[in-house]
C-alpha cells in the first residue's frame, strides 16, 4: 500500500470530531453515534451528547439496537484506545456502514463540544411520555 492509498483508506474509515459535529447538525437522522467504551460506569459517565451507550462487552447481545439503515459512528477513550476500531471491524463484518470518531471522547472534550453526564440523569425524570 502506498501513502495515497493509506490516507484514502484512513479518511474512508474515520471522521474527525469537527466533521461529525457539522454533518450531524445538517443530517442528524443519517447517523447513529455509539459510545463503545468499557469500564465502570462512573469513569465513563461523561459521554458525547446524544450518543447511544453500548459498551463493546455488551455489543453481541445488543446488536439488534443498532440500525442498519444509518451510518454508524463509534468512539472510545482517545487515540491510544483501539476498542472503537475493534467494534468497527465487528460491525463492518455484519454489513453495517461504520466510521471511527478520531480521538474519541478525549478529542471531543478538548474541542469543548457538547457532552452529557449520565450520572446526573435521574431516571424518574424520564416518564417516557
- Looking at the structure, the CATH topology is Oxidized Rhodanese, domain 1
Total individual domains: 1
Describe the global form: globular
Percent helix among the residues?
25-40%
Strand order, sheet with most strands: 1-6-5-2-4
Count of beta strands: 7
Helix-strand string:
HEHEEEHEHEHE
CATH architecture: 3-Layer(aba) Sandwich
The proportion of residues in beta strands is 15-25%
Q: Write the CATH homologous superfamily.
A: Rhodanese-like domain
Please give the radius of gyration in angstroms.
15 Å
Unreliable residue runs: 120-129
| Strand-pairing-aware structural class | alpha/beta
Comma- or semicolon-separated keywords:
129 residues; alpha/beta; 5-stranded parallel beta sheet; two-stranded antiparallel ribbon; 7 strands
Please explain how this structure is put together.
This is Rhodanese-related sulfurtransferase. Residues 27-117 form the Rhodanese domain. InterPro entries: GlpE_sulfurtransferase, Rhodanese-like_dom, Rhodanese-like_dom_sf. By secondary structure, the protein is α/β, with parallel strands linked by helices. The protein has one domain (23-119): Rhodanese-like domain (Oxidized Rhodanese, domain 1), CATH 3.40.250. Helices cover 33% and strands 19% of the residues. The strands form 2 sheets. It has a 5-stranded parallel β-sheet. A two-stranded antiparallel sheet has the order 3-7. The model is unreliable at 120-129 (pLDDT under 50).
Amino acid at each position: 500500500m502506498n501513502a495515497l492509498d493509506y490516507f484514502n483508506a484512513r479518511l474512508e474509515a474515520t471522521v474527525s470530531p469537527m466533521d461529525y459535529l457539522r454533518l450531524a447538525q445538517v443530517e442528524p437522522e443519517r447517523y447513529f453515534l455509539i459510545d463503545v467504551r468499557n469500564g465502570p460506569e462512573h469513569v465513563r459517565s461523561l459521554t458525547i451528547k446524544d450518543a447511544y451507550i453500548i459498551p463493546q462487552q455488551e455489543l453481541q447481545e445488543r446488536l439488534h439496537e443498532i440500525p442498519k439503515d444509518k451510518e454508524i459512528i463509534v468512539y472510545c477513550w482517545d487515540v491510544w484506545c483501539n476498542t472503537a476500531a475493534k467494534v468497527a471491524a465487528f460491525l463492518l463484518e455484519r454489513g453495517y456502514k461504520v466510521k471511527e470518531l478520531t480521538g474519541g471522547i478525549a478529542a471531543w472534550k478538548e474541542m469543548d463540544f457538547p457532552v452529557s453526564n449520565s450520572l446526573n440523569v435521574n431516571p424518574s425524570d424520564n416518564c417516557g411520555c
